[in-house]
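Entry 14. Two folds queued back to back today. First construct below, sequence then structure tokens.
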Amino acid sequence: MNTTYTDAELAELDRIARRIDIDAPAERVWDLVVRPGWYINDGEVDPAPDLRHEGDVTVVRHPALGEFRFRTVELDKPRYAAFHWIGTPYRDESSPSTLVEFWIDERDGAGVTLRVVESGFSGLSADPAAWLKEREGNDKGWLAELQAAKAFAEKSAAARTTRS
């Protein structure tokens, strides 16, 4: 990587913060975000993912991308969920990990704002070029994943309203 960053810039780049408004109840969005690794997909949330549990670790298996491992840090229904992303096909469970946090904030009127912060990229490698590359992929990925969450939650909320 040819770009040189100051320490302050690297500190700012250590995290990704995104948000999206979703026209669905907090409980419906909670049902999604409480599921570790729901964002391992091909642009559409899998309603029946391939999950298994190994003690306190949840393993998400994607047919094309491989296995991803998550450890639940905290759940505060229906407002906050946090997970350590402890293993990927490129990083094993003994390697440093990022922290993925979700907040569900009710909006005036209807729906919620879903916020995500992924932090700890600088701990993934002593070489800033290496962790910045991983961060770049996730930065783009969170934009797509929040759109997928919105589509999933709003579709599910609409289906429940239609059945009622």
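Second construct, same run, same settings:
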Amino acid sequence: MGVRSYELDPQLHVNGAVYVQYADHSRFACVQAAGISVEELIGSGLGPVNLETNIRYHNELRGGDEVDVSCAWVWGKGKTYRVEHVLRRLDGEVAAEVTHVSGLLDLRARRLVEDPAHEWRSRAARPGLLNLD
């Protein structure tokens, strides 16, 4: 994706909040590519939530740069999982890393589900894209 002029701060590099937006866009695209409809997920009473977001900056992204954003899902035991993004300029330099700790919220009970990996896997046509194969 290309850096747009309205994403820049007064120092003419990408505003910090935009890194999170790039990561969010990548994660949503990954979910869609796995064959999951977020609308259907929410309709079934579950909603993805971010519990923590960390950004580690490495190199500037500036206006006109092109950036590739990876999306890697990391599963463990319990109610949460991580999604890790590496934002890389086309010259190969890492611009930033964005990591989310996330969960799936039961929208009726307002509690995190016990096994989010199971819920994502059961809905995915291509679970490997979510590291669930």
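Quick look at the second one. The mean pLDDT is 94. Strands lie at 46-57, 67-69, 72-74, 80-89, 94-106, 111-112.
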